[in-house]
Amino acid sequence: MSEKDVVLKVENIYKSYGNDKVLEGVSFEVKGGETKILCGLSGCGKSTLLRCLNLLTRLDKGRVWLEGTEITNPSTDINKMRQKIGFVFQEFNLFSHLTALRNVSISLEKVKGMKKDEARKIALRELRRVGVEEHANKYPAQLSGGQKQRVAIARALAMNPVIILYDEPTSALDPQLIGEVLQLMQKLAKEKITSLVVTHEMGFAQSAGDEMMFMGDGKILEQGPPCELIQKPKHELAKRFFKGMSELYAGERR
In the predicted model, is pLDDT for residue 14 greater than 70? Predict the structure, then answer.
């Protein structure tokens, strides 16, 4: 694939909090239509990395390009660039006082300047796409965790982003609700929605991921096809991580 097919390019990102070095020279690319998986030990900097990619967290050093435009350049209109980056959080981040429909449509009105009717039409379309159209007029307190996360995904999709960043989107869900969100994400992967997914769901990684990156000590230590990386990791930290994940899933099946 040529340079023009690269949607997101990350070059040598560093981030510290005081003496705590969180990211130490992270570099990678995400190509158009690709679902890239990011996994690693807790506290290794995965969530910080995602937040750095749309400058919710300011990085100390390094550069990030979105569709060839450097978003880390001080002259870039970061609010305009953020409109092109969907973000799905662990804890849904829905407005509790708004219905599912309004949670999706409000950004279209406020950020994209759409008229209310047009925004409502797009919001309903995306709620239908993620399978929660019948809950459009319910408030978050009336929805299950899986339904809330699907509304959050609809909100990201409605903005027509060039990439969606998922920060462990199933980690706040009860086990019986995880499957419905993963099935939706698999469907979107088949639709070639460009995505970077932080997850520990190895089944999803193998079925939907085009490439997988393993992160540790603030760096990308290893990357490759998900099945290959999970079954034959080379780095010692990766070996321990995937062995632990394998034992966890085996225990859950028993």
Answer: yes
> Is the pLDDT reported for residue 222 higher than 60?
yes
Contact 40, 22 (CB under 8 A): no
User: Mind giving me the DSSP string for the chain?
Assistant: --GGGEEEEEEEEEEEETTEEEEEEEEEEEETT-EEEEEESTTSSHHHHHHHHTTSS--SEEEEEETTEETTSTTS-HHHHHTTEEEE-TT----TTS-HHHHHHHHHHHTT---HHHHHHHHHHHHHHTT-GGGTT--GGGS-HHHHHHHHHHHHHHT--SEEEEESTTTTS-HHHHHHHHHHHHHHHHTT--EEEE---HHHHHHH-SEEEEEETTEEEEEE-HHHHHHS--SHHHHHHHHHHHHHHHHHH-
Average pLDDT over the chain reads 92
> Residue type at 210?
D
Residue 232 burial by Cβ neighbours in a 10 Å radius (0-12, 13-18, 19+) = exposed
Of 131, 129, 132, 108, residue with least CA distance to 120: 108
Task: Compute how many other C-beta atoms are within 10 angstroms of the C-beta atom of residue 125.
Answer: 14
Which tens digit of pLDDT belongs to each residue from 97-137? 999 999 999 999 999 999 999 999 999 999 999 999 999 99
Q: Give the predicted TM-score (pTM) of the model.
A: 0.92
Facing residues of 61 across strands? 14
Q: How far apart are CA 12 and CA 182, in angstroms?
A: 31
User: Rounded distance, CA 236 to CA 219, Å?
Assistant: 14
Across 138-149, b (16+ Cβ under 10 Å) vs e yields ebbeebebbbbb
